[in-house]
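Exam revision sheet. Question 4 asks you to relate a sequence to its structure. Input first:
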Amino acid sequence: MSTALKVKTILVSQPKPEGDKSPYFDLAKKCNVKVDFRPFTHIEGVSALDFRKDKVNILEHTAVIMTSRSAVDHYFRMCQEMRITVPETMKYFCISESTAFYLQKYVLYRKRKIFHGKQTVSDLMVVIKKHKDEKYLLPCSEIHKDEISEKLDEQKIKYTKAVMYRTVCSDLSDLANVNYDVLAFFSPSAIKSLFKNFPKFKQNKTRIACFGTATSQAVKGAKLKVDVYAPTPQAPSMTMALEQYIGMANKGSK
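Answer key, structure tokens:
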């Protein structure tokens, strides 16, 4: 780990957190660094016309697995575009309590059968296994982790993948002449977006922080160097990993 170059600016490739409370704001204040936010990718919905080509019948299912707010939004968008009335008996199995509460945007929470895990796929599977007779619909992106599919297959749960949205590279042309000391990435798609926008990108003195094994592999696959990695036992979050790195890089630097 290089400590020769001081860190003054960080670009986080995610949307700016809502509200005043965020570990990133605390990091900026504590370490006296500037932290900017810019999503490198965004979500676009699959059209009803394209969705019909997959021949997925939404009403053949008795339950829906919601792994994110995007899944919630695009499931109900698709139902609206296809003029499908979701039956009152539909059950919802959400990855977390916050995703379950988000359903209130579309359904009356108390009148529906809504279940949720704590935060992980394993937690959610504990709940799903208690309802093995349901026929599940899994709204997802065209690029998604196979973990939940693998666990559903292991338990012989009946389900159908429904690709309802896509992860698309954002236009970053306004960043062409802007340099940051650290770029923080959280998904392989963000690395893809970096090179789509800047095909001749060279790392040079820029430090790269990445979260997760898949992101790290994408960084290395692009022949870039990983300077900051999370999660680790010592730094389970990106902000903790950045704080530790900044503490070493800025110690004694001018």
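Marking note for examiners. The first strand starts at residue 9 and ends at 12.
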